[in-house]
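During the practical work, I worked with a single protein chain and the tokens that describe its fold, as given directly below.
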Amino acid sequence: MSGSALAGQVVLVTGGGTGIGAAVARRFAGEGATVIVTGRRLEPLERVAAEIGGEAIATDAADAADAARLVQTVQDRHGRLDVLVANAGGHGFATVLDTDDAAWEAALRANLTTAFVAARAALPALLASRGRIVVISSIAGLFAGPSVAGYTVGKHALIGLTRSLARDYGRQGVRVNAVCPGWVATPMADQEMDEFAAAAGIGDRADAYAAVTADVPLARPAQPEEIAAVVRFLGSEESSYLTGAVIVADGGAHIVDVPTLAFEHAGM
């Protein structure tokens, strides 16, 4: 779209090969932005880049040298960086007693360090462009699910990172906001649903999604494109007076008063 406010903008998406990251890349590219997708696996990145007419660069976003090279490459090729979408994440699916030191470090590296290191590397370029950072946290950044200690801690910490960045760099024109999705129908969630369906004996993947969203007001998971729409808003000047905000996109799950569910289930 040549008339889009995003035309000419340069957008970097970490974890851009699948799921939410890929949907975000498609949304920005569809509105005229130049999009660079990055992640550790080159093959899915190249598929997304080919689809959107963007670029794929394999990078470990948690590695400082890798992240610095990535941002320098973007600047060398395009002369600027306007938006960083810190989407990379994963790991941390166990209780505290079942999480050893290596698993703990892996969870924090995947869910927190990726965003911290990518943001630190990108900030000089974003300061120059008065750009935006969108951090993808999770409803697990607000609440705790069972047996996801490392993931929960990492996603909570992303909200603190978002607020710290917004506080420190807002006066210099950089806006930083976070998105907390609930269940989203991504490849990672599909795998979880398949495992849940098998363990619970409740049927197939669709039945599993229905079960985990049964008490959510909208009673369904999000599609990645729905989260991408929120990210697009925060990554554009349409959100010009938002910084340090935490946008919850969970179908209303966070508004449910859990102790009253028993009344609803009883038909009262």
Notes: The longest strand covers residues 175-181.
